[in-house]
Design a protein that fits this description.
alpha+beta; 4 helices; 5 strands; elongated
Length: 191
């Protein structure tokens, strides 16, 4: 009976050690992936200064003049604000600025024109309701654009690092508990 208990205990310890090592390995891989994807985006983000923006004007652009004819396209919102004592164009996020510099806000779904137009009108009404709001501006003097929301801010970085840290801590605790159990077993066997 005692030998079966020791063998079962040894198998359980081995499995727990393998699980702990696998958790630590997964955390290390996740840290590597985050260091090559999220961290560079966070470091490249120049919109670090939080400031107060005042709405100057907003318009919905859904038609484009092309050789004298109006060509329909997806609706987008164009917002001008006053921030840090100068005129600036407001962009929803860093990605919005990269997608289309002529639009401050691009709706999420462009498949249904009416739904996209309603979404843009809702956002425009929200800006008119709250004409003073916080935004993020660049520290450079010649930058004429500001962001409403940062995608790659400190909160996003901390949220991205939470689960790998939790996995690493859990794996290390599991390994430590198994090693502690093994050393206590050896001490008990010596007495």
């Amino acid at each position: 009976m005692g030998k079966k208990l020791v063998m079962a205990q040894k198998r359980g310890e081995t499995r727990a050690l393998c699980l702990g090592v696998a958790m630590v390995a997964c955390a290390a891989i996740t840290y590597y992936i985050l260091a090559t994807t999220v961290l560079p985006l966070y470091q490249k983000s120049v919109w670090t200064q939080e400031s107060t923006c005042r709405l100057i004007e907003s318009s919905i652009r859904d038609q484009e003049e092309l050789e004298g004819r109006k060509v329909p396209q997806f609706p987008c919102l164009w917002v001008n604000v006053s921030a840090v004592g100068r005129w600036a164009v407001l962009y929803h996020t860093e990605d919005t600025r990269d997608q289309n510099q002529q639009c401050s806000y691009i709706p999420g779904s462009l498949d249904n024109y009416q739904a996209a137009r309603a979404d843009v009108e809702k956002v425009r009404a929200n800006f008119h309701e709250h004409q003073v709001f916080y935004c993020f501006s660049a520290t450079q003097e010649n930058e004429t654009s500001v962001l409403y929301r940062r995608l790659y801010g400190p909160q996003a970085l901390l949220f991205s690092l939470f689960w790998p840290t939790f996995l690493l801590t859990g794996g290390l605790l599991l390994i430590a508990m198994v090693k502690l159990n093994q050393s206590l077993s050896i001490l008990a066997a010596q007495k």
